[in-house]
Structure formats: structure tokens, C-alpha cells
């Protein structure tokens, strides 16, 4: 009888879980694992010493996530995404230790577009991956401006896809919640505020995008300080060839002294074989009224072992002038005016 009782309980639980699963729509587990070996020259804070290391995310950031939707009828669905970034070389959680630091949002989608709330990619992130030569690998436009892969907490976003036209708008009541008092301060709504808007359009072989991004300081004292970015990109594809070009103007009052800078880039990709692609690009940061400029050269060779697995070789050289300290990879630094070389080889698997 005890055995029968356990069976009945198990059967009842299974029935409940099955009913719950049927009530929900599909939920998908997905992710990327990327790890390799990297050499970086002048890797020390003072510009001395070279680094030889195992690194994560040389071609694409390692991550795992859950996404799902429920059909609400009439072409409308409830949607959600939970996405966690991590380091494949150590297994540690990335993005400041956030469990779902890449994305965490829920919303409604329909023929008119979708509205989502939570931690989300900013509009620069959403629109400019196709316009970057290395598609946001660390040796890319991110080495010059990491805000192209920026995210915002406490954000509401609208995105609409209408044939060849895509539009998007974002408002964040506080883009960085890990700072104490850095967002959603009662009576001071501008603290940590971010506003973004963008559009892309494709006409045959030509594509273009335009984005505006604005952020305010993350304290009551700096809430009046504003940082603005204006970006435009072009892409042209013909057979195995793809050419990209981009421009970004930065006007930042979040640093002292305030700066204005131009960022230009030009690159291309050539599918030498169905499984083998070569990418090359050049990026230049020009700080106005200053000699603190930088130019980087990037090269990537990628070979697809299958639809889901790729091996790659990346290389970059960053030439810093004046007091510029940009490293070859995103969010890295070297000593003032010191050039840096980076080479990384590894494997990327999508699941």
C-alpha cells in the first residue's frame, strides 16, 4: 500500500507539472561557450610586461539564457528573456556578479512591435552589431567605446519591425543599480537616467542605421551632467563581400574635463569559402582639441567546423598617441601613449 501511495502521489505531481507546462508556451535554453589562448603586449599598468593567458569570449561573450513566449491570442504574446554572462576560463559570473547581468526582461509582443521592461541592451547595442567589422568581439569598436555594448537597468523599451524598417526607443530610470544611490532616487528622477532612440533601414544590398544615446550622472550631484552619443552606420553586401563603415560623435560631461571626440571605422568581410571568413577593420578615435588619439587595426579569421562550432584567430594592434590609454580589447587599458598588440586563438560553440 505504501508503494501504491507513493505512485499515486508521483502520478498526481506529474499530472500537475504536465498541466503547468501545457499552460505555458515554449521555453528555450540557449548559450555560447567561447574560450581561447591570448597574448597581449605591454599588459602591465605601467606598460611593461606581456601576458600569456587563457581567456573567455574572444569571438563572442560566453553566456547562457532562457527565453520564452506565451500565445495570448490575436497575434499577441507574452515574452521574457533571462541571460547570464560568465567567464568560460574560470566559471565565474561576469558583469559585476549579476546572476542575469546580460538581460532580464518581460514584456508583450504583437504585430505593432514589442514593449519590454527590465535590464536590457541599449539602442547602440541593438543596432550596431552588423555594422562592426568584428561583430563586437573584444578586438572591435568596443575597444574604443564600450558603450556600444551597454545595458540599462530599470528600462522600458519599444521595438518595432516593419519590413525593411526597424525602430526602437528606450528610457531607463536608472541604468546602473549597483551604485549606491545611483538610480531611481526619490525627487531626483534624472539620477542615472538613460534615453535612447534608433532606426535601421535596408534597401537591397545597402543597410543603414542611426542611433542617439544619452546618459546622466549616477549621483545627485552629477545628475545635471550629460553624456551624448550620435552614431551612424552603413553596410553593403554583394555575394561573398561585405563592407561596413561607421561614425560616432561623443559629447561627455560625465568626465572632468569634459570631452568631445569622433570615432570612425571602416572594415570588411570576405567569405573565402562557405566555412572560412576573413574580417579586417580599422578604427580611429579623434579627441577634439587634443593629441590623445588612438587608431587600431584588427584582423579575424574564422572557420566553421559545423553550424554551431567555430575556431578562430584574432589579432589587433592599438596605436596610442599622447595620453591615450586604450587597450586592444574592450574595457582594457595600457600606459599613456603606449601601443599594444593582441593575438587570440580559440573555439566558440553555440548551443
From TrEMBL:
CDD domains: gram_neg_porins. Pfam families: Porin_4 (PF13609). Residues 1-23 form the signal peptide. Transmembrane segments: none annotated. It comes from the Bacteria. InterPro entries: Gram-neg_bact_OMP, Gram_neg_porin_domain, Porin_dom_sf. It is found in: Cell outer membrane. Residues 10-322 form the Porin domain. The keyword Signal applies. Keywords: Cell outer membrane, Ion transport, Membrane, Porin, Signal, Transmembrane, Transmembrane beta strand, Transport. It is a multi-pass membrane protein. Gene3D superfamilies: Porin. Its main location: membrane. The keyword Membrane applies. Homotrimer. This is Porin. It comes from Cupriavidus basilensis.
Amino acid at each position: 500500500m505504501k508503494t501504491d501511495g507513493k505512485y499515486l502521489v508521483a502520478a498526481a505531481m506529474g499530472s500537475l507539472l504536465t498541466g503547468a507546462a501545457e499552460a505555458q508556451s515554449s521555453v528555450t535554453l540557449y548559450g555560447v561557450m567561447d574560450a581561447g589562448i591570448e597574448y597581449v603586449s605591454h599588459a602591465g599598468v605601467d606598460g611593461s610586461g606581456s601576458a600569456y593567458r587563457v581567456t573567455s569570449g574572444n569571438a563572442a561573450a560566453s553566456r547562457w539564457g532562457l527565453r520564452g513566449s506565451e500565445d495570448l491570442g490575436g497575434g499577441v504574446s507574452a515574452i521574457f528573456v533571462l541571460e547570464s554572462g560568465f567567464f568560460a576560463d574560470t566559471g565565474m559570473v561576469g558583469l559585476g556578479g549579476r546572476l542575469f547581468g546580460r538581460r532580464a526582461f518581460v514584456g508583450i509582443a504583437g504585430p505593432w512591435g514589442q514593449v519590454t521592461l527590465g535590464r536590457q541592451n541599449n539602442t547602440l547595442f541593438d543596432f550596431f552589431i552588423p555594422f562592426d567589422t568584428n561583430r563586437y568581439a573584444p578586438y572591435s569598436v568596443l575597444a574604443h567605446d564600450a558603450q556600444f555594448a551597454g545595458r540599462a537597468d530599470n528600462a522600458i523599451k519599444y521595438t518595432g519591425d516593419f519590413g525593411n524598417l526597424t525602430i526602437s526607443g528606450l528610457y531607463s530610470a536608472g541604468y546602473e543599480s549597483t551604485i549606491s544611490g545611483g538610480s531611481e532616487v526619490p525627487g531626483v528622477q534624472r539620477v542615472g537616467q538613460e534615453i535612447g532612440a534608433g532606426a535601421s533601414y535596408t534597401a537591397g544590398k545597402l543597410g543603414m542605421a542611426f542611433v542617439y544615446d544619452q546618459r546622466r550622472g549616477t549621483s545627485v550631484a552629477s545628475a545635471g551632467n550629460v553624456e551624448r552619443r550620435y552614431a551612424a552606420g552603413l553596410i553593403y553586401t554583394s555575394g561573398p563581400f561585405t563592407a561596413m563603415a561607421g561614425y560616432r560623435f561623443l559629447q561627455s560631461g560625465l568626465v572632468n574635463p569634459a570631452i568631445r571626440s569622433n570615432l570612425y571605422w571602416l572594415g570588411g568581410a570576405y567569405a573565402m569559402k562557405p566555412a572560412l571568413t576573413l574580417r579586417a577593420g580599422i578604427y580611429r578615435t579623434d579627441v577634439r582639441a587634443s593629441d590623445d588619439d588612438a587608431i587600431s587595426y584588427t584582423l579575424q579569421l574564422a572557420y566553421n567546423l559545423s553550424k554551431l562550432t567555430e575556431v578562430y584567430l584574432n589579432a589587433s594592434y592599438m596605436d596610442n598617441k599622447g595620453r591615450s590609454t586604450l587597450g586592444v580589447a574592450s574595457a582594457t587599458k595600457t600606459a599613456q601613449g603606449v601601443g599594444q598588440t593582441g593575438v587570440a586563438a580559440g573555439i566558440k560553440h553555440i548551443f
